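ok so heres the complex, two chains, lmk if somethin looks off
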Amino acid sequence: MKIISLLLSLIGISILLLLLFLPPKHISSLEELSKLKENQKTSVSGKVINERLLEKSTILKLDNNIELLCDCPKNIKYKGKNITAVGIKDSFLNKDKIIVLKLKYDN
Amino acid sequence: MIIEILLALIVGILAGCFTGLMPGIHINLIASLLLVSLGFLSGIPPIALAVFIVSMSITHTFIDFIPSIFLGAPEEDTFLSILPGHKMLKQGHGFQAVVFTLYGSLFALPIIIIFTPLFIFFLPNLFNYIKLSIPFILLFISTYSILREKNILLSLIVFLLSGFLGFASFNLPIKDPLLPLLSGLFGFSSLIISLKNKTKIKKQIISPISKIRMKKSEFLKALSASLFSAPLCSFLPGISSGHAALIGSEIIPQKNKGFLFLTGSINTIIMALSFVTLYSIKKSRSGSAVAIQEILNQVTLQHLVIIISSSIIAGIISFFIGIKLARLFALYLNKINYKKLTIFVMLFLLAINIIFSNFLGVLIFITSSALGIFTILSNSRRINMMGALIIPVIIYYLTFP
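and the predicted structre for the whole thing:
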């Protein structure tokens, strides 16, 4: 039983880690975002049309109406820039948004 | 207004008893249902709704040890209590085990009163310094805990495997990942082993409360550990009651009774101080604090006074309710076939994981149960499985300082 349980846990952990490192699903609309599962990794590209500074983070709204919550540097202005972000879906209080893990932008 | 607040307090206590007794039904579920229904509740003063959340949350921290200890069905705040709790249950002292956690929660109330002004005045300046030191404290505690073991390699393997499992669980699209992770590691695995070993539970002894005591030295150790670790862990994101119990018990070693007292007090202190943190540094450290922030928008000093007073009143009432409920559980356990009960609880845990989670959640549940079984059969300390929470937190703090 000891060996079986160790093997089972190793197989389970390997499958989970494999799933974790799969490339994120690219989305381009709010509808596609709503179809994702909570906490699912995703990537999105677009032009920033609105930028709202919060106490610790920034909310970026893209031209496809997707909102990104980002802990990005406050000295950089993103409005008007084309960005690509990788993050996870969050839908606190039924409002879908992406919490940014990585962000790239065109100068 | 006072009548509404009192009613909210009573309904909150009842709701907290329900969430505490039902494994898998978390206070966050009720709080989020309340938030979604705010439109329909516009006639009720926001402070009364906040008092409902507060009294439900505090009551939950008193009651949720009962299913953990008597049934082996843990939640995120109580899973560590299974370890000494189940040992005492087998010896016929399940009721005593719950009472020690209740003592801990009761003694948490004056600690909350003492720490509230300290949090208001000092926390805003100290927060960033303490936050930076957390990954290093956890690294130190984990290394110390592993090096203390007889079989260091085995403990390291269990710690790392749990860590990988925890890391994957928190980063995959799983709703409420703690449910399959902790119920598998600490609940389902123990139940399978007790079924395999044909564990016999002695007849439960229901001693009078006045006779349920711990040594003065044990009490002082448990109190000091909770005074040190609970306030430290109550305002940091990603740090749970489990982390606080581990830090407290590694720094000041505890025996069974002391450990139960410690987990009880930490649970209640962390919950109540999360409301103070909301006022002092504007951070919501628990699901209940998030709900209160949404309801009140801005927490004022007047709100905080009402919230802390409600916590204290709810805590005192919950202590007596907790004793009554624990007595009932102990009485019924004597009349029930323990093997059948174990099978029922195992099926129940499986069912709530299937209902509240998804395919990935069930995969985590199976994997964590297997790892839990391996840990028990290898005679490694089950506290090593805390790697499931510690490693993701260390990574979080090192990558998002």
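quick notes: Chain A is about 25% helix and 40% strand. thats all i got rn
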